[in-house]
Structures are given as structure tokens and as C-alpha cells.
Amino acid sequence: MSKVRVRYAPSPTGFLHIGNARTALFDYLIAKHYDGDFVLRIEDTDIARNVEGGEASQLYYLKWLGIIPDESPETPNAKYAPYRQMERLDLYTKYANELIEKGHAYKCYCTPEELDADYEKQKAEGHTSTRYNRRCLHLSDEETQAFETEGRDFSIRLKVPEAETYRFDDMVRGEITFESKDIGDWVIVKSNGIPTYNFAVVVDDHLMDITHVFRGEEHISNTPKQMMLFNMFGWDTPRFGHMTLIVNEEGKKLSKRDHSVMQYISQYKDQGYLPEAMFNFMALLGWSPEDEEEIFSHDDLVARFSEKRLSKSPSMFDVKKLTWMNHQYLKAKSDQAWLDFVRPFAQAKYDLSDKDDSWIEIMLLLFKDQIQYGAEIADHIAMFFEAPELTPEVKEVLDWETTPVIAKAFLNNLPEVWEVDALKAAFNAAKTESGLKGKPLFMGLRVSASHITHGPDLMNSLYLLGRDTVEKRLREYVG
């Protein structure tokens, strides 16, 4: 068996979408599972849609996810370079001319207006689908010369076999069959000299020794066109696999126009989702292990991934599950690693420059088991930087007869040294003095001092709020 080589070939049209990232991940896992090469190739022939920085953005977020190409425009293998299609135009011209010489392709001088008229005529005649009528298939030398003299541009069309069956064993769906009679002669090189998608990828896949082509189900209809080219050239056909759709919670195809759910890897990174959680979550969008386990390391997924466990059913993009999974990865971090991760998110919201490191660490670690993603830390620590709004729930507790009792008792026992141990001692003294216990004791002090009904450890909260804030609130409350 030849070395497995799998390619991911995006267009540089913007940020990395979750669907494309899933494709790249599965391509990567197949390649690495078989000790093969994962190749990043850039399909940049649709110049109008290319975005400046799009290629760099794609590569950056792939690397962030841990999907590292063995070969790419950045890390080329001289045997297969270049890796951008616009740098390979001479190759496409060479192979297009070879097809013409073999009688498998021909020049088409039809204008867009002529083509539109032909298609409209076919529709008027009741045809449910339109196809090229081969007007230019048998042009005489005189007709060709007349078009050239007229200054007409030409495209190159493939002469599709009349009665050929194209059958392949899809890695996901099993056997799929197409008939050539359902496919008209299609353009392989446009009039501007740029190859069409289906032609360029076949030339590239052959020259780059690609063994597996794994992509979204929208490419199923492209497969017979690519297979006929492999046959005409006498090249080995790679194995094809087509992943099922990713759908939203309503079962509808995930659309880039649906703004109710974040769909770009950059958005999840900015919100503080971990790359290893994203890697793990996306691997389960169309693949399942043999057991019920859900948390896998990078190496575990490489070892266990198999095309035999690919699903034929659409995969739901469940943000709640992703968030749960991210939470598991966050909780598993060491305290220092967790602090290093969430601190930038805290600093992005609040000025910590006047706080010492120990204060910051105590504050952040209070929420280690609660934070599901990095940006969420800002909401949790708000109580230490902003005066909370007095909600109806807070006002209700402040109206309890017992709340002023514990507030006064704690004021009477405020420690000189503002440390957690001293605050615990003050609390115990206030408990004895007030004679309170349970909810009136704990909730009463929390609400009167912090103005929130629920929060992290009470003594640590009081320490972080600081003596001035706690004393001011208690005195204002008890009058």
C-alpha cells in the first residue's frame, strides 16, 4: 500500500468556518491514523472571492486547533510544490492540451448569450435540466478560424463519454453510482485561462500523490466528473468519502447566515474555548468511538479514528455540549495553567494593574470549577469591581429582621488585619454575638456586605472586596 496522503484544500475567502475545520480535522485524523501526510493546498482560482490575509488566517486557526499540515505553502515539499493553484496554471494548461490531443476535450467558442439562448430553448421544450448541445464539438478549420478572426475567446470543454457508469465505494455512504448520460460536456478551462474546480483538483491530486479525498457531501456530484478525468488520463483514482451535514439544534443545515450560533473558530478562540476541546468536539461531528467515552486527547483520537465508524446521519452542532466539554478541559488544568489562561480575559474587562498577584490569584481561583469558557470570568469577578444592582432578591434579604443583627455583630468584630483567617475569626465571633445560624447568618452577611445573594466562598469574597467597601456597606445599611 502506498503512503496515505490526504489533502485539505480551502479557498482563501475568510475565517475558518466550523464546517471547514471539521473537514480539515477528519482529513488530518485519517492521514495521521495511517502514519500518512496531511497536505494543505490553497484553491485560490476564484480571484474575486479571495480575501487578503485569508490564507494566513486559515493556517493560523488550523495550527491553533492542533491540525498541523505536513506540507503547505509555508512548509513545501519540493517534489509537490507549489501549493497554490494560481502558481500552477502552466500545469493545468499542459494537461488540458493533452486532453485535446487525445480527443477527450475541445475548444468551445460559444458566447454567454448563445449558451443562455440554448438553455432557454431546452427549458421551453420541457427539459428539466439543461446541458451543452455540443455546438463546438466538430468545428471545421474554417469555422474555428472565423471565430479566431472575430476575436472570440474560447473555453475548453470535456467530451463526456456517451454511456459510461461511474461507481465508487464512498468511505461514509457505501456504493454510489452515476451515469455519464446525466452529465453534459463541462468546462475544464474557462475563457480567461483559469481552470475550473473539478479539473484543477484532479491534476493536483494526481501530481501530489493524494490517496484519500475526504470532504463534505456537497461534493458528491463532483465525484463522477473527477473520476472521468482520472480515467481519461489513466491515473489511479483516490478513495472518496463524503461527510454528512452539520445541522443546528432544529435539524436545519448550519448556514453562515444563521447568526444565532457562532460558526467560526476565531469566535470560539476569542470567547475562551480551548483548542483541545474544539478538536475533541469536532471529531465527534460525524464519527463515534466504539464505547460511550467522549473525552479524548489528540493522540487518542489519532489512534482510534477509523472510517468504519463514520456516521451516515447528519451531526448536530450542540453548543451546550461543546461548552460542557470545554468546562471539563478547563477544570482539568493545574491551578497555574488555569490562571495563565483566564487572566487575559479578566484583564480585558477590568484594570488589574493596581492589584497584587496574590489578590488576583485568590479572586480568579474562586471560580475555577465554575468557568465554562475564558470570557465568562468577567461576569463572575464583576462583584469585585462594580457595585451590584440591588435586585428584588437582595432587597428581600435586606428586609429580613435578622440581617441587621448579623451586620451589626460583624461590624463589632471587624479585624484589624484584613486576612482570610482573621475574617473567619470575626465571623465566628459575630455568629456567637448574634445567636444566628444557617441561612439568616450566612445569607444575611453575604447580602449586606456584597449586595449579591449567591457567590463564591464568603470569607474570600469579603477579603477581596476589601475592608473599606465591606465596612462602608455595612454601616450604610445598619445606619
Would you give an account of this structure?
There is one protein chain. It contains 20 helices and 11 strands. With 479 residues, it is mainly alpha-helical. The strands form 5 sheets. A 3-stranded antiparallel β-sheet has the order 3-4-7. It has a two-stranded parallel ribbon with strand order 1-2.
Number of H/I helices? 20
CA radius of gyration: 32 Å
Number of strands: 11
The rough form would be described as elongated
Q: What strand order characterises the main sheet?
A: 3-4-7
Uncertain segments = none
CATH class of one domain: Alpha Beta
Overall structural class, as computed from helix and strand content, comes to: mainly alpha
CATH topology of one domain: Rossmann fold
Straight-line N-to-C gap: 85 Å
Mean pLDDT equals: 95
CATH architecture of one domain: 3-Layer(aba) Sandwich
Strand fraction: 5-15%
- Largest beta-sheet details: 3 strands, antiparallel
**Helix proportion of residues, in percent?**
40-55%
Brief write-up:
The chain is 45% helix and 9% strand.
Topology (SSEs and partners):
Layout: E1 5-8, H1 18-33, E2 37-40, H2 54-65, H3 89-101, E3 105-108, H4 112-124, H5 141-150, E4 155-158, E5 165-170, E6 174-179, E7 187-189, H6 197-207, E8 212-216, H7 223-233, E9 239-243, E10 246-247, H8 265-271, H9 275-283, H10 298-304, E11 315-316, H11 319-331, H12 335-349, H13 357-365, H14 377-381, H15 392-398, H16 403-412, H17 420-434, H18 438-450, H19 458-465, H20 467-478
Parallel strand pairs: 1-2, 8-9, 10-11
Antiparallel strand pairs: 3-4, 4-7, 5-6
